[in-house]
Design goal:
The protein is built from nine helices and 14 strands. With 308 residues, it is an alpha/beta fold. An eight-stranded mixed beta sheet has the order 8-9-10-7-11-12-13-14, covered by helices on one side. Strands 3-2-1-4-5-6 form a six-stranded parallel beta sheet, with helices on both faces. The two termini are 22 Å apart.
């Protein structure tokens, strides 16, 4: 392993397990961090996909991730279907790897606790990839709320409409693999950033879901009301039907006692109150790079990562 106790600038090696669409984003993010961070291997059951990804970053390709873990990489980034998270997470922890696990941590609570316990027993750090928190517009929104610019926060509203069906991996639509449908795949980000922005845990949930289309036993649409421990309310409405949805919709509003924020992911942040209004357009940034940088820094400094 590349990092010795107290070392600050020794090389960190990275393995990416699962190089589908999101896994490839992680590969590019870590590969672009510099010479002291190196992607040494990628693994995917699709041999051609693994080979293409490995060629792109100068790494070795594997079909079996266990063989990749024999390299004892410092970091394992796990981007597998949700039902495989526990098995891969426990294997990576036993191999001494710090773990960046794609959300959700697991598809059952039992598996999630098992992953956490395995990391504790093997003294490795664990972070979950709630990558949208690293977006510039969400960072700005959090700063405005924390500084009191919107007054006392009261309510958050999330709405998303995204392509579903064949536009996402097929396992997403089977409960045994995903644990749920669009809530576990896309809506979980909304739940996370609402809790983060409002600085409170969720105490109660009321929700209804629907499933449109054949060949799925999970939700393709949902409507939920979230009650937070600090008295704030949240709402979440989302749909990912089997047809192409254009334009894609992903917006968040936060209402406070003095102002409102509106965030369109990847586009802009708006602030409105009685005394001022402004809009910050977002220049293209890569939250995967910011996330990779933060995790590498936490490991080098032997601290807990921001998102545990």
């Amino acid at each position: 392993m590349g990092v010795a106790s107290g070392a600050e600038h020794t090389e960190l090696t990275v393995a990416v397990i699962g190089v589908g669409q999101i896994g490839q984003r992680h590969v590019r993010a870590f590969a672009g961090l510099g010479n002291d961070v190196r992607v040494v291997g990628v693994a995917d059951i699709d041999e051609a996909r693994a080979a293409n990804s490995a060629t792109e970053c100068g790494a070795r390709a594997y079909v079996d991730y266990r063989a990749l873990l024999e390299l004892s990489p410092d970091i394992a980034v796990i981007c597998l279907p949700h039902h495989l998270h526990r098995e891969a997470g426990e294997a990576a922890a036993k191999a001494g790897c710090h773990i960046l696990m794609e959300k959700p941590l697991a598809h059952t609570l039992e598996d999630a606790y098992a992953i956490v316990e395995s990391c504790r027993q093997n003294d490795v750090r664990l972070t979950t990839s709630f990558v949208h928190r690293y977006r510039a517009e969400f960072q700005r929104a959090h700063d405005l709320i924390a500084s009191g610019d919107i007054g006392a926060p009261a309510m958050a509203i999330d709405v998303f409409g995204l392509p579903g069906g064949p536009n996402v991996p097929s396992w997403v639509w089977q409960k045994q693999y995903g644990g749920g449908g669009i809530l576990m795949y896309s809506g979980i980000h909304s739940v996370d950033w609402q809790s983060w922005l409002l600085d409170s845990a969720i105490e109660e949930v009321s929700a209804r879901s629907i499933s449109i289309g054949e060949g799925t036993d999970v939700e393709t649409g949902l409507s939920a009301t979230l009650t937070f421990a600090n008295g704030c309310l949240g709402s979440l409405v989302g749909n990912q039907p089997g047809y192409l949805v254009t334009p894609r919709t992903r917006s968040t509003e936060v209402y406070g006692s003095a102002a409102r924020l509106k965030i369109c992911s990847g586009e802009f942040l708006e602030f409105t109150s009685d005394v001022q209004a402004f809009r910050d357009d977002v220049s293209r940034d890569d939250p995967f790079v910011a996330q990779a940088t933060e995790f590498v820094t936490a490991i080098r400094q032997q601290q807990e990562p921001w998102i545990t």
